[in-house]
Write a structure and sequence with these properties.
Strand content: 25-35%
Shape: globular
Distance between the termini: 25 Å
CATH topology of one domain: Nucleoside Triphosphate Pyrophosphohydrolase
Number of strands: 11
Largest sheet: 7 strands, mixed
Radius of gyration: 19 Å
Structural class: alpha+beta
Number of helices: 3
CATH architecture of one domain: Alpha-Beta Complex
CATH superfamily of one domain: Nucleoside Triphosphate Pyrophosphohydrolase
CATH class of one domain: Alpha Beta
Bound molecules: 5-O-phosphono-beta-D-ribofuranose, magnesium ion
Order of helices and strands: EEEEEEEEHHEEEH
Length: 254
């Protein structure tokens, strides 16, 4: 059950709009709930942006590749409501519209998860997000027509290397493993727009990252190696990806 995108303790991201409270049992769309009357919110910040959809859903090809854009979900086919807007595959969020997300339906991101063993401790690289102040994976949106793996390298370079590509990482980039693909319980999700990601693990066994200078850039304000054992609270559902990382490396985290 998604949780982060049902938070009613504070307004929706960069707005003064509050979500309609959705109790756990009312999350699934197939549970009838006539009293459900969430606000509709479409941020002015996305209006007219080239990376954003038009305001109307008419003509958008959902559940398909739409020109250069991937409107398919990792979660399988999603439904549309009476107005033709996509319905969040994880259920109600307490907010209608697109919120601050650019796309109706799935908004595809990618998350590079760089890891290593340091003194027997499993570690990964995290950034601090400027929007929420939370630690997170240095991920970002996949541009229209961009290969997800290329997007993962680009986002890491922008957010954790301040846009200075590291030659040392060339070999590491060749050995990415898909750890997860699917829905992200992101605070920006709405009933009609949501985040999905592809998490790639790049495990550094040769100490190449020792030669790379980490420096926060773009929308990151800090970058650090974190110990899996420290259970650092992470943005959205990123902690789940750390659990998958530990499992993948057969690491017994405390
Ligand atoms: C999360 O938002 C994804 O897992 C990814 O880390 C991030 C992408 O959005 P931006 O960092 O571009 O805001 O849902
Ligand atoms: Mg970014
Ligand atoms: Mg980002």
């Amino acid at each position: 059950l998604h949780k982060t995108c049902r938070d009613t303790s504070k307004p929706y991201t960069k707005s003064e709009v509050f979500r309609f409270a959705v109790p756990d049992e009312k999350v699934p769309w197939n549970v009838q709930w006539d009293e459900y009357k969430p606000a509709e919110y479409n941020s002015d910040k996305i209006k007219g942006k080239e990376w954003a959809d038009p305001e109307a859903v008419k003509g958008l090809k959902f559940n398909q590749i739409d020109g250069k854009l991937n409107r398919k979900s990792h979660m399988g086919d999603y439904k549309l409501d009476e107005s033709g807007a996509p319905l969040n595959p994880e259920g109600r969020t307490g907010l209608r519209g697109r919120g601050i997300l650019g796309r109706w339906g799935p908004n595809h991101a990618t998350d590079p998860l760089i890891s290593r063993l340091n003194d027997g401790k499993l570690q990964y690289i995290a950034i601090e997000r400027s929007d929420t102040g939370q630690w997170a994976l240095p991920g970002g949106m996949i541009d229209a027509g961009e290969e997800p793996l290329e997007a993962a390298k680009r986002e890491f370079t922008e957010e954790a290397l301040d846009s200075i590509p590291a030659d040392e990482m060339k070999e590491l980039w060749k050995n990415g493993t898909v750890l997860y693909k699917g829905y992200v319980d992101d605070p920006r999700n709405t009933d009609n727009s949501w985040m999905e990601t592809l998490v790639y693990n790049f495990h550094d066994t040769n100490g190449v990252m020792d030669k790379c200078k980490l420096k926060a850039g773009d929308d990151a304000v800090n970058v650090q190696w974190k110990n899996v054992d420290d259970n650092v609270p992470l943005y959205a559902s990123h902690s789940n990806f750390i659990k998958l990382l530990a499992k993948h490396h057969k690491y017994d985290s405390k």
